[in-house]
Amino acid sequence: MSQTISMQPTVKISPFGTTPNGDAISSYTLTNNQGTQAVIINFGAILQSLKTQDKNGNFADIVLGFDDLESYLTNPAYFGATIGRFGNRIGNGQCTIDGQTYTFLQNNGSNHLHGGAEGFDKKVWQAETVSDENSAGVILTLVSPDGDQGYPGNLTVKCEYHLTNDNQLQIKFTANTDKTTVVNLTNHSYFNLKQQGTMLDHLLEIPTAKLTPVDENMLPTGEIRDVAGTAFDFTTAKPIGQDIDAKDEQLKIGGGYDHNYYFDKADGELSLAAKTIEPASGRVLEIYTTEPGFQLYTGNFIGDDLSGKGRQYGKHAGFCVEPQHVPDAPNKPMFKSTLLTPEQTYTSEMRYVFSVVK
Ligand code: BGC
């Protein structure tokens, strides 16, 4: 597909439907001076589309998603969504903060998953655009009230998307609370760099071989395990599907990869989480994060009934690398804390970096 490329990064605002409550939703199309294009909607602060070049200069949309707002109102697989207040699982839908026990919706067996029935992926965010000669962006803000989905404290959240001329989509989160709460924000984009079929043939490289294994309820056991030499070892690039059916107790529990990798690094240091190459198109995606780890999720439960952008989705249609703290950290004191006090500011940054190999 050819497109006209302007020298200045641009932001274009278009209508994207109306919610059942009557909120008008817009899409924000960010285009950089190389023609890379990211579309964000202010429902769920969702990354709806991401068009990057292949080795022949052809643009294609490399994220799973839908064409209309109606589909995003349910969005059962969380395509492109901003996840909060707490990404991933809180065991038994409960945790204790400052001596008080809080109860959350159990929407994943007995676990609380991705912030509840009306998590940040289902909220209407306020949006304002920003751009300069090097980048185009949109800044989304949300006030999650005290008691929202059971969480304590009024939480003011900011999610910024900036598409830079050097082909990075930077996502920056900040949050402040007026009562101690737990926060673990992430972006839940699913990638398929060839825009069709499954992504099992993409080459994946993950620099760390440390993992937090899970029990049969998908909750971390508390162990940090060295997985060098196992199916979970991606320290040397290999196809995502190469070992996905290996006889491995952890793969069996997850129905594929659905696990948190863990880094040993200084708090807040930006580092490479994962690098993916799709050999046919030559597209390369690198994902950086300041978080101490990330969930590798190979789309094991994407329903065959989901379709969008002229595609039928299904199992392994895309993969996610979701930067975050260790799941269930509110109940697992051996892991880095996810508590946010009124004196602190939560910050987290991730980057999707695009390039090609011939
Ligand atoms: C979780 C999966 C879950 C999926 C929902 C991922 O972040 O790790 O277990 O099924 O989100 O789309």
Automatic annotation (TrEMBL):
It catalyses: alpha-D-glucose = beta-D-glucose. Its EC number is 5.1.3.3. SUPFAM superfamilies: Galactose mutarotase-like. Pathway: Carbohydrate metabolism; hexose metabolism. One of its GO terms (cellular component) is cytoplasm. One of its GO terms (molecular function) is aldose 1-epimerase activity. It is an enzyme of class 5 (isomerase). Beta-D-galactose binds at residues 88-89, 188-190, 258. This is Aldose 1-epimerase. It comes from Catenovulum agarivorans DS-2.
